[in-house]
Amino acid sequence: MEKKKEWWHDFFEKDFRPFFGVLPARKTIHEVRYIIKKLGLKAGDSVLDCPCGFGRVSVPLAKMGMKVTGVDITGSYLEELKESASKKGLKIATRPEDMRKIQFRNQFDAAVNLATSLGYFEDDRDNLLVVRKLFQAIKPGGHLMMHIINRDWIIANFSPNGWMQFGNAISFETRRFDYTRSINQVEWSFMKDGETHTHHVTLRVYAYHELIDMFRKAGFVDITGFGSIKDEPVDRSRRWIWIFGTKPKR
Question: What predicted TM-score, i.e. pTM, was given to this entire model?
Fold first, then answer.
């Protein structure tokens, strides 16, 4: 029997890409400057962007002097990243790989996992494995930054429906929250050029204390978190969590 493809393969490859356009370029630059500041990065430092998507953060990091390696399972995004980097005269290494399977060891000064790129997997052990793999990839004394939606904000602001538009593309969401597993289940329909595609998305979402526990289990120390790039505290009024951990020095 053929193994069923996991939801993110077609979701990102075919339908979701246009909606990254709703993020203003200025927002990206503010976030990249925050990343550089909080991780203590300087020109020449090596950074793993996993998953990197089409390079929203990889490209400006490379432009600011970092040696960037981008990992993503969506081939078209990596092609877009390579083309964008080439046009700007930047060198960015890319690797098409499932983030659970990366085999880097003590290679990077820092790693970033952004835009709620954790929680894709039905088995919590696989989600923890991602954090362990990122820990393994970082040099002793290096840092991980993760940017992820806040479960407590979702609970406080839950809405069963939502929609978005960018250009001639429209998306509609029908949501159901599974409180037994903290999984947001979404029927996500995309309409463009007279066609409609529907995807069933399941995302394990995390409270701040759960993320701290995952970081500790992976081996990180000096774990801190904030609710915004202004270093505001994490609470249910903050949609995002920016969490940081350090790999102990030998």
Answer: 0.95
